[in-house]
Amino acid sequence: MSSDRIPFAFDARYRVAARPFGVTPRSAYVELDDDRFSARFGPWVVDTPRSNLRSAGVTGPYGLLRTIGPAHLSAADRGLTFATNGRAGVCLQFHEPVAGIDPVGLIRHPGLTVTVEDPEALAAELTTGEPVLRTDIDRQEAEQAAVDDLHTMTASELRALADELGIEHTSSMRKPHLIALVESKVGDRLVDVVPDA
User: pTM to 2 decimals?
Assistant: First the structure.
């Protein structure tokens, strides 16, 4: 049974920060065969049957401090990240959580992100017959649509939205000021707040 080895895509800053942790281009890769998925990131390894893979999608970009250096554990959901760049990677979800961050497997991870050289190809390989999810592009498009929708709202619609968000004293405000207030109030939640135009 043959296996494919897929290298990680290293950016210069990530390469320098990862080296003290034993993460180099020779020790960071994904291996696939007909039955198993394995990802090595220096001393960290995730190994699981391919049948345990629930989904795979291309994600990114990623924040530098949350990804650079060693393997990163998400405090929110215990997801694990093996990152060598901040541009894009593949986010994998598992049916059964897997070991990876600690050598004895006390912490189990429901998901893993790997920044391989060709994220689209890996996601396509792992989602045979299904479309490759591009959550990074989908989110960017949704965010731009929300901004466009916000700017096409009337002043009275903006005031109503501001009221829903708990922004007070908007009755005499002009449209540009209302837009700025809504954007500053919701930040990156704009997609969830602005109704479809």
Answer: 0.67
Sheet holding 80-82, edge to edge: 72-73, 80-82, 109-114, 89-98, 53-59, 133-134
What phi-psi label fits residue 30: left (phi over 0), alpha (psi between -120 and 50 degrees) or beta?
A: beta
If residue 157 lies in a helix (H) or strand (E), which one and from where to where? helix 155-164
Residue 170 confidence (pLDDT) above 70: yes
β-bridge partners, 127: none
Q: Is 191 exposed, middle or buried (0-12, 13-18, 19+ CB in 10 A)?
A: middle
| Residues 6+ positions from 165 with CB-CB distance below 8 Å | 182, 185, 186, 193
The shares of helix, strand and coil residues in the chain, as percent rounded to the nearest 5, are 35, 25, 40
Range with the poorest average pLDDT among 111-120, 140-149, 152-161: 140-149
Beta bridge mates, 133: 57
Measure the CA–CA gap between 147 and 197, rounded to whole angstroms.
11
DSSP state of 116: B
Cβ(194)–Cβ(146) under 8 Å? yes
